[in-house]
Amino acid sequence: MISLKDYDNDSTPSWCPGCGNYAILPSLKQALVDLELYPHQVLLVSGIGQAAKLPHYMNCNGINGLHGRSLPLATAAKLAHHELTLIVIGGDGDCYAEGGNHLVHAIRRNPDITLLVHNNQVFGLTRGQAAPTAERGFITKMEPQGAPLPPFNPLTLAISQDASFVGRGYAGHSQHLTDLIKAAIRNPGFSMIDILQPCVSFDHQHTYAWYGERVYHLDRNHDSSDKFAAYHKAEEWGEKIPLGIFFQKARPAYGRLKPILEQGPLLLQPPTSPAAIETLFDEFL
Question: What global pTM score does this model have?
Fold first, then answer.
């Protein structure tokens, strides 16, 4: 029987003491155990950053890609072995800045993968510059007069483009986050969870206490199939910050649009003969 120990390894996290990443790690492990997924059935893909280190601290398949490029890598891996449970891990800088273009097209393609974004409003690995989600006026060493731009809202973007699953969690609510991750993995399509995560080193404004006074769970009356209601809730920020599943829409997963996958994972299918490839080349001459 699967247990949390199956996902443990001997690595010691290098995150700052008190970092919200420490709370996200066990929530992910618990979600995988609850879903009875074994390490060999799971592939974690990440880019570069503090959040992207998470796969190093789990005993399962993992790939580190380029900064901001984890989603196309994960899409390719899912197509090659679509029976794997594919989870992408990244920070708000990794996924929403360098990776913003790939996020848009991942939503459009709808591959059956789950994206977990650790959102702390800063570039933590490079010592605290304002990330796209930073609130206007947020003061950092690079923006001593405050971030001049309005914050990027990943939830409204995903909802507007009909992402099949859009949610928000909080590192301080571990059980809720675990349940949210399980729901995202079960969803047969592209699932995005924006996870609010305090940065104790470079953001002394958005602390655990600050979030604790503001976050609340969407109630059962919220209709996640109502796009306009979801969009309205996703714009709520400030005195109250909602958590939960904002939006869901049934769409065919990208892999289902590829008939060849009906024959099984690509890596288990017989290799294409060189003669057949040469024939394809001839068609373009």
Answer: 0.92
